[in-house]
Amino acid sequence: GIGKSAIDIGDILPLYFGLWTNSDMKSNKEIIQLYLNSDWKKL
Questions:
Q1: pLDDT value at residue 36
Q2: How far apart are CA 24 and CA 29, in angstroms?
Q3: What is the pLDDT of residues 1-43, one digit of tens each?
Q4: What residue numbers bound the domain in which 18 lies?
Q5: What's the pTM?
Q6: Pairwise CA distance, residues 16 & 24, whole Å
């Protein structure tokens, strides 16, 4: 039923989001560093 689907989605989404954020951070590591460097230079 609906309750079972909600539980399944609740278990899957955190894992999927975690994997996506990990790959996103790795692929955009240089971009993130550039933003941090520009912020530090402004300070």
A1: 74
A2: 8
A3: 566 665 566 666 666 666 666 666 677 777 777 777 776 665 5
A4: 2-42
A5: 0.27
A6: 12
